[in-house]
Design goal:
single chain, mainly alpha
């Protein structure tokens, strides 16, 4: 279970990095970046929950 949690946390962190790059590209192109911003916020909330879960295990 611990290894699976670590993999999930690593995947979410990677997703956040990719979404951040996407958002910055949209900002540079002066386009709407609200969708990636919302996805980042959700991913950060998920990451927080998984990290807390890992600490409890």
């Amino acid at each position: 279970m611990d290894a699976r949690l670590n993999q999930t946390i690593a995947r979410i962190r990677k997703d956040i990095r990719l979404l951040s790059r996407e958002m910055l590209a949209l900002i540079d192109a002066d386009e709407d970046c609200s969708q990636p911003a919302q996805q980042i916020m959700r991913a950060q909330a998920d990451l927080r929950l998984y990290i807390e879960k890992r600490e409890r295990v």
